[in-house]
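Bug #77: duplicate submission created two jobs. Keeping one. Sequence:
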Amino acid sequence: MKKRQWAILGGGLILVAAFLIKNKLAEVDPQESRKAPRIIKAIEAKTLKAGAVAIEIPIDGPLVAQNKIEIYSEVNGIVKASSKNFEAGNYFFAGDVLLDLDDSEAKSSYLSARSVLINTLSQALPDLKLDYPEAYPIYYKYLQSLSNNEALSAPPKENNSQLKLFLSGRGLYSNYQNAESARIRLSKYQIKAPYKGSLTEALVEVGQLVRPGQKLGEFIGKGKFEMIASVASSEIGRIKIGDSVALRANDDNRSYRGRLFRKNEKLDPSTQRVQIFVEVEGEYLSDGEYLKGSIAGQEIKDAMAIDRKLLIDENHLYRIADSILVKQRVEVLHSSPEKVIIKAPLPEMKVPLKPVAGAFEGMQVRILNKK
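Kept job's structure:
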């Protein structure tokens, strides 16, 4: 009997406990039980201020050396060996001999013409001393300079018309011109570097016979280049000669500063683009290298420049107000692949540095302090 009473009592207690738990659970708000914990995202931000913003027009194109020449022969001759061979890749300073041709025949012709000039003047000096004694010391000194020096100098400038006719009749001026012509021809057997640079192409070797008009190679100067690029016809009015150009190599490890120094006035009908030329200098630049960059064109007043990735639906962005994201409508004034220029909606506003994942209007954020 007692076991039965205890069983009934135990069952009653279980029912009472179940009733109390049920009532307690009923008092809990189901909305509160499903509410997720509030997350505050930490982001980096920057402050934008309204002001004048320069338009950046993206460009790219190959480099062409400003100091580049193709080397041709003007005379016949056999290539002689020299201290620095005529080979691609060899570096030369201004005035160094690039190519030396056998000039023995041309040198003989020059010396012969020079001797004729000296003899002509020697024969004219006795008559010159009698008829024009005041001019005799001048031409005697000129004869000594021709005899003592290998350099060929021009006859003294003569203002006396009668003396000039006398010397012309004796053949002084014509013989000088013959000697000068032979000297110039002799100088063409040595091809010298016009500036410091290197050979990029060499088409002849030591011992080879070259002929007039034959291409011998190509020589490129160091440092100065021009980049050939193009801009859309709609952008040509935004740039001008002298504008600064920021350039960088494809590896992004080298950057340069150039200057727009020439532009074509003709529009390419097939592309609707205008060709421009940018002057740039750099020690490690190479002819044919491809660069990319942007031109700092005219300025737009009362504007702001932002990362293109911050735009939402092309005409909105999120700004930060009291740690809350606010969706702001903006007017785009100019766009490029990386940045856009917008009309300043406020004198100053704070925006995320990068797009915020899962952002929505009213989202609470915490701004990180950048070191």
